[in-house]
Design a protein that fits this description.
The complex is a heterodimer of chains A (about 350) and B (about 525). Chain A is of the alpha+beta class. Chain A has two domains: about 15-45 and about 130-160 and about 200-345, Multidrug efflux transporter AcrB transmembrane domain (Multidrug efflux transporter AcrB transmembrane fold); about 50-130, Alpha-Beta Plaits. Chain A contains twelve helices and four strands; from the N terminus they run H-H-E-H-E-E-H-E-H-H-H-H-H-H-H-H. In chain A, strand 2 (about 80) and strand 3 (about 90-95) form a beta hairpin. Chain A is elongated. The N and C termini of chain A lie far apart (about 50 Å). By secondary structure, chain B is an alpha+beta fold. Chain B folds into three domains: about 1-35 and about 345-510, Multidrug efflux transporter AcrB transmembrane fold; about 45-130, Alpha-Beta Plaits; about 185-340, Gyrase A, domain 2 (2-Layer Sandwich), CATH 3.30.1360.200. In chain B, about 55% of the residues lie in helices and about 20% in strands. Chain B contains 14 helices and 19 strands. Chain B has helices at about 1-15, 30-35, 45-65, 90-100, 125-150, 175-185, 200-205, 265-280, 315-330, 345-375, 375-400, 405-435, 440-470, 475-510; strands at about 30, 35-45, 70-75, 80-85, 105-115, 115-125, 155-160, 165-170, 190-195, 210-220, 225-235, 240, 245-250, 260-265, 285-290, 290-295, 305-310, 335-345, 400-405. A four-stranded antiparallel beta sheet of chain B has the order 7-8-2-18. Chain B has a four-stranded antiparallel beta sheet with strand order 3-4-6-5, with helices on one face. In chain B, helix 5 (about 125-150) runs antiparallel to helix 9 (about 315-330). Chain B is elongated. The chains are: A alpha+beta (about 350), B alpha+beta (about 525). At the A-B interface, helix 4, strand 4, helix 5, helix 9 and helix 10 of A face helix 6, strand 18, helix 10, helix 12 and helix 13 of B. Strand 4 of chain A pairs antiparallel with strand 18 of chain B, so a sheet runs across the interface.
Chain lengths: ~350, ~525
């Protein structure tokens, strides 16, 4: 059985302008949505707050839950249905990290029981203080940054045998980040700065593959984050884990294509680069699609059957894998052409 | 070698399946799967320093009294500074001598004279402060560990995190509220005299006489659950603290059939208690725990022997918990809960069920897909996949890592990713066959050319997983572990195991066409 015939020849590179436009629009939508929502919607992990998951034996009105919460000074909480409807589970969220000592759960239980007239089962309580939230936020951003950094070092080292240059560059970047932290620059800004510096360096050092890889990665992560913001979903620790996985995984396809490009460059070095790129993408198309397909298969299963806690995590992975496949064909490879344009101008 | 790996894996994984079969450890389940509580506490070290400074200033005051040096005031000010005001040249001289003799380690901040009153400001040097802070956290850790041990939790994990934080993990705990109360109470037990000579009413209006304070007794009616507060006017000076306790036990009052906590003092404590009770017969002695009055009985007579009882309207459970925290001792400083994650056991069981279900369905889908798409080769990939899961399980058991819900998600994800390596190889082999190579040559070429690509692709995932492991806490760390294990296992199964099977087929069976 074969989905993609061996003699397939689609002119991917020729359509790169359309692809760039599509990507640009998606990224633009992501950024606009982020600005519109005032940044990503942070879960209690990163913002501090309290989350209570309760289960009733029968369906209750959300308003009744809210009335009950009002009695114990939690009136400002948001209440929403959680998981499938027939489980009668609700998620209560407040921004303030209430002190959960001294009979807190008992209070909640009693208040809800009296306002809804139903037995309450408190299934999960999560309280994160603002201080811990801040720590986790910083750690998460740094984790993303370092993952990107190490991966690009590996790529440029493996593909262009420029271990020295990439090593020195990494040291310079880490140094720069360290110096900037001394000046108290806010961390998202800092990481943006570091990424920009990295891209400029890649450009001038002609680390083409690393450049292609990192642009594709930033593209994937931005769109995933944007979609999250668009659907008004929350960022939690698990979502960061998903994003990091996407960073690691969406490169798989890119690497397959890059590998083939290198091989073909040796084989048919007389052909123009565009032809070689196209040929490589077409040759590897079936595996690009298949590998993503098997992964999507399991991630979608997880999305459908995994339950409420893992739902958003699976969603992030689905988006990431899908966008990652697209970007390895339409974003990462065409970037290699950028230098050609530069050489022609000279 | 493959054989050895598989057998080792089976040895490791079997105990998790049938605990009785092997005396090896099982796979640990995370708190989100088996239910339990995760707490991060912060020790308020500032308060520890404050109480240390308070103690020193009290000491100086008593010493001055003993040596009959006239002083205006010795007080703790601005949190952690001591301000000493002394009048008259002669007294000032003596005071300075005393400071030089006994309190060399206090740091002098300022020293000025106004209207004949010498005011000296002192505080503790930074190195001493660090020492006190460190000690406070150590002590808190020890005390909390004692309390939890006595409370009876199986396999608690209590450790220091960073400078002044304590991480507590209590798996399988049901009554989380009770555990939290037990851990979080400072449990500073103090004995103070009730001042019945002054008017409580005027004090309540805001005219608290110097050296006095108002503390409340809080009662909860067991039927209506309504609380009532009773004020007491107490002398601020603490006569005796829980530091002298040797034991605390629950006993039942034979008269009212109510539980109470009986406490025993050590020799020194007993002597102090005897003196207090002897000096203050017919006055009321308040028993204060964490600034709440528990009871304030009238002292009938001098009590020798160092035994006292704390009454209140306790339930047996409350009395038991109080005894535990008194036995384990007071925390050197209050603790604040910075982070709490509690998962009920029913939710944990749900998560396991849903996780395993999605794992089976997802795995089945992939297996069927591979079979249809690649036929015999797909079967080989499926065998590799099955072994892959076995290896992850064995890795978890062998490393004593914890399996969490995101961890299960990680396994599911690696099911999808593990066949990727096979797909890359198979596609390559197909290409080689299309070029007209014999099956044997095609297999060799396919594996040789695909190996590097697969390595590269997996190293990037591994890098992300390692970074995640560094950054993650609890559940997320579990995901990083299974993901890394999965990547390594899939490298092994795809590059070594499936190739072995292929070689066996192509060499021993001498197949003419590949079923791929």
């Amino acid at each position: 059985m074969q989905f993609v015939k061996p003699d397939v020849n689609i002119n991917f590179i020729g359509k790169r302008k359309i692809a760039f436009a599509v990507s640009a629009v998606m990224i633009l939508i992501s950024i606009v949505s982020l600005i519109f929502h005032g940044g990503p919607r942070l879960g209690i992990d990163f913002q501090g707050g309290t989350l209570i998951q309760v289960k009733f034996s029968a369906a209750v009105k959300i308003d009744d839950i809210k009335t009950g919460l009002q009695d114990i000074q939690l009136g400002k909480s948001s209440v929403q249905q959680f998981g499938e409807e027939e489980t009668n589970e609700y998620l209560i969220r407040t921004d303030s990290s209430v002190m959960t000592t001294e009979g807190f759960t008992t209070d909640v239980k009693n208040a809800l029981a009296s306002s809804t007239g139903d037995e309450v089962d408190i299934r999960r309580v999560e309280m994160v203080g603002p201080q811990v939230g801040r720590d986790l936020r910083e750690k998460a951003l740094f984790a993303m940054f370092y993952a990107l950094l190490f991966i690009t070092i590996y790529i440029s080292g493996r593909f262009e045998l420029k271990w020295m240059i990439s090593g020195v560059m990494a040291a310079a970047l880490i140094g720069a980040v360290y110096i900037f932290t001394l000046f108290n620059v806010s961390i998202p800004f800092l990481i943006l700065l570091a990424l920009l510096v990295a891209l400029v360096l890649f450009w001038f050092l002609e680390l083409k593959y690393a450049m292609g890889a990192i642009v594709a990665l930033v593209h994937d992560v931005t769109i995933t984050v944007g979609l999250f913001s668009l659907f008004d979903k929350e960022f939690t620790l698990a979502i960061i884990a998903a994003l990091l996985t996407i960073i690691g995984y969406s490169l798989n396809d890119t690497i397959i294509v890059f590998d083939r490009i290198r091989e073909n460059l040796r084989k048919y070095h007389k052909n123009p680069l565009e032809v070689i790129l196209n040929r490589s993408i077409n040759e590897t198309l079936s595996r690009t699609i298949l590998t993503s397909l098997t992964t999507l298969l399991v991630v979608i299963t997880l999305f459908v059957l995994g339950g409420g806690i893992i739902h958003d995590f699976a969603f992030a992975l689905i988006v990431g894998v899908a966008v990652g496949t697209y970007s390895s064909v339409f974003v990462a490879s065409p970037i290699l052409l950028a230098w050609q344009g530069r050489q022609r101008k000279k | 070698m493959v054989f050895v790996v598989i057998v080792t894996a089976i040895i490791y994984i079997l105990p998790s399946w049938k605990p009785a079969l092997w005396p090896h450890k099982q796979i640990n389940l995370g708190l989100d799967l088996q239910g339990g509580m995760h707490l991060v506490l912060e020790v308020d070290t500032e308060k520890a320093i404050e109480s240390h400074v308070e103690r020193i200033s009290q000491e100086i005051r008593e010493l001055l009294k003993k040596k009959r040096i006239r002083h205006v005031a010795i007080e703790r000010v601005e949190g952690i500074k001591i301000s000493a005001e002394v009048k008259k040249e002669e007294s000032i001289e003596k005071f300075r001598a005393l400071l030089d003799d006994e309190y060399r380690d206090l740091r002098e901040l300022s020293d000025k004279k106004t209207d004949g009153v010498q005011t000296v400001m002192m505080d503790i040097p930074d190195s001493d402060r660090d020492q006190i802070e460190k000690l406070a956290v150590d002590q808190a850790l020890e005390t909390i560990r004692n309390r939890i041990d006595q409370f009876g939790v199986s396999e608690p994990d209590i450790r220091r995190q960073g400078e002044n934080r304590i991480l507590i993990q209590l798996p399988g705990i049901k009554d989380t509220q009770r555990a939290k109360d037990l851990i979080g109470k400072t449990a500073l037990l103090e004995f103070k005299l009730v001042d019945d000579t002054q008017s409580l009413d005027s004090a309540l209006e805001g005219n608290v006489p110097p050296g006095r304070e108002i503390l409340y007794k809080i009662d909860e009616d067991p039927q209506t659950q309504r609380t009532s507060k009773t004020p007491f006017l107490l002398k601020k000076r603490t006569l005796l603290t829980g530091a002298y306790l040797t034991d605390a036990r629950v006993a039942i009052d034979s008269q009212f059939n109510e539980p109470y906590v009986s406490i025993n003092f050590d020799k020194k404590g007993a002597r102090i208690f005897e003196r207090i009770t002897g000096d203050n017969v017919n006055k009321r002695l308040a028993i204060v725990l964490d600034n709440h009055v528990y009871s304030a009985p009238v002292i009938q007579e001098k009590i020798a022997g160092g035994e006292a009882r704390i009454t209140g309207r306790f339930t047996t459970e409350e009395a038991r918990d109080l005894a535990i925290i008194l036995r384990a001792g007071a925390l050197p400083a209050p603790v604040n809960i910075l982070e709490e994650r509690t998962v009920g056991p029913s939710l944990g069981a749900d998560s396991i069920r849903k996780g395993l279900l999605s794992m089976c369905i997802g795995g089945l889908l992939v297996i069927i897909f591979m079979l249809i798409y690649y036929k015999t080769a797909g079967l080989i990939a499926d065998v590799a996949l099955f072994l892959n899961i076995l290896l992850i399980g064995a890795g978890l058991a062998g490393l004593q890592a914890t399996l969490t819900l995101p961890g299960i998600a990680g396994i599911i994800l690696t099911i999808g990713m593990a066949v990727d390596a096979n797909v890359i190889i198979f596609e390559r082999i197909r290409e080689e066959v299309a070029l007209g190579r014999t099956p044997r040559a095609a297999i060799d070429a396919g594996y040789d050319r695909a190996t590097l690509t697969i390595l590269d692709a997996n190293v990037t995932t591994l890098i992300a997983a390692v970074v995640l492991f560094q950054f993650g806490t609890g559940p997320v760390k579990g995901f990083a572990v299974t993901l890394s294990l999965g990547v390594i296992a899939s490298l092994f199964t795809a590059l070594i195991l499936s190739r072995l099977i292929f070689n066996y087929i192509s060499v021993n069976r001498k197949v003419k066409t590949l079923s791929i």
